[in-house]
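note to self: dont lose this again. the chain is below, predicted strucutre after it. 738 aa total, dont forget to put it in the shared folder this time
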Amino acid sequence: MTDFKLDIDADGIALITWDMPGRSMNVITMDAIAELTVLVEKIAGDAAVKGAVITSGKDAFCGGADLTMLERFAALFADMVKSQGETAAAGMVYEESRKLSLLYRRLETSGKPWVCALNGTAMGGGFELALACHYRVASENPKTRLGLPEIKIGLFPGAGGTQRVARMLQPADALQFLLKGDQLKVDRAKAMKLIDAVVPADQLVSAAKEWIKAGGKGVKPWDEKGFKLPGGPVYSKAGMMTFPPANAIYRRETYDNYPAARAILQVVYEGLQLPMDTALRVESRWFAHILRSKEAAAMIRSLFVSMQDLNKGARRPVGVPPSSLKKIGIVGAGFMGAGIAQVSAAVGLDVVLIDRDQETADKGKAGLHKTLSDRVMKGRMKGAERDAILEKITPTPDYNALKDCDLVIEAVFEDRKVKADVIAKIQAVISDTAIFASNTSTLPITSLATEFKDPARFIGIHFFSPVALMMLTEIILGKQTGDKALAVALDYVRMIKKTPIVVNDSRGFYANRCVLAYIQEGHLMLLEGIPAALIENAARMAGMPVGPLSLNDETGVDLGLKILRATEADLGPAAINPGQKKLLEDMVEKLGRFGRKNGKGFYDYPQGQPKKLWPGLADLLSKKLSRDDVDAIDVEELKQRFLVVQAVEAARTFEEKVVVDVREADVGSILGFGFAPFSGGTLSYIDMMGTKNFVALCRTFETKYGARFAPPKLLIEMAEKNETFYGRFAPPKQKEAA
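---
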């Protein structure tokens, strides 16, 4: 035994401590499954053992399955298909992937009472282990989270989770828990009866053992005669009030893009009509099916493996010592600057927040106080947490306060002259070792760095709005940015618990280039006469979180016009679409419709009511389609246009070496602008379709709609060779930097 330790006390109660060597958190591996199988059989077969308690030797109980193990299943499946055929390969995946489910069922029916003593967070297969035990007790720990988040990476709980949760909760509550993948605090989990007791940490194991001594039964309710489902039979009045609406909600929320979500509905619906062992077999068959899906493969790779690599510092320069950031400066106390101050102070950094005068600086902190107080009022934060964050932030107009800052971030208005003035003031006072970062979304870092005395210490850190909620940051390298600046920027982003991607300098960098292509496609569809409601719905059906017109309102219609004009000034009239320019000029300059900021854009924003598409939009457009023409619109083509126009732009950035790592292109597209998560990201979308098919589709759209769909030379070459991005540009194996 290497992962588990077994002790049997004088009362005949076994204590199993899970403590995997060399890992910061326990995870489920094939070795761990094998060891736990031996322990379950030993306890089941030893008459002297009255029951067992399983706990963890680490701060958390279990982080879930080692998903690289599941990735290997996919590779093994592909190899077996070639050598033994698809039927044999599918059978192998089924048998291998159900081993954990069979183990948990054996534990559950071993005849001995099992207690899970949760000393910290338990996720996925770790929480499924807890659910298989006959009693669950958790320690009082505000950091503990319990949940089944598999849906977020294109899977579902496949070790009995769907069946046990559906027999413990009302079906509507069970479906919501499984389909949302929420992480519960211990008090919420206890209220839902997913755990049985919460005790002080020093009483955890003794409380677990006490339950066994007091006669705790080693039988689950659903294995006893007369068990009744909490919500009654599926085919009952209550059941019919749950499953048809659940199906409708599922389709409304996912547009059938997520096979795992559909499978959850299916296995709960079928499983609740079957005995437990048969239900588990149904679950296993669906799990093996979903595990082989292209969506699961892409989501596991991007949203777990790649994201984990990036969060651990895959792009950090080797040989640069770790940073010890303690104090940072932020210049610009507006919405973005205050957001950066919030996430920095929340992790314990001292923050100097500077603006042009004391009143403006104080206003930035006051706005943050209101935002955090709203969270306190809603129960999402404690007052003490809010106060601790605000205490770390010092608003001032005095640039001398930046003298001892390790990192200074400017977040002022997106204007070259304004930024140049701020850079001059900052470099006059900061130390010769401090790193300077610009939070710019459009201005090239290399040109901004010419205003700074040491361009090697100048870097871009592009935050996305709202800063507290968006999990991505773009780190932009200027031509002279040094390794230390990159290392400090990556260390800082890791401190504030966001995922970084490193991109090279260019107009719009990576994310904004793709986002602008998406918004432009919405504008051009409008100019074609396609109804705004159809445009917005087609985009959401394609997998985007919001439609392009809604997104433009959020970012600012006036900002869109400004970017368009700046592009025209720098690159010439051929670089923009004149119809799009006129549309935005009419919206902004003739009608004063700036977006959500002034309550009117492509949508109207009546106070206290949901937003609604602006009725006057149709009158603004010269081209109008007849009802028959609208009915003839190919919605699938609209969906493809939205995804293809972003993916082909991502391919261009890769060819131009703006993005140099496929992981960053994919992770950045999902976290930064919500590119259809089921696809795994922009480049995974191309791989999923196949480069030959993608290039052919680009050619079709180029002929019908214009040069914006023209595939770059790299894609054409890859299509000719039948290559994929992840085949040709496999991420290098990099060690985590110190």
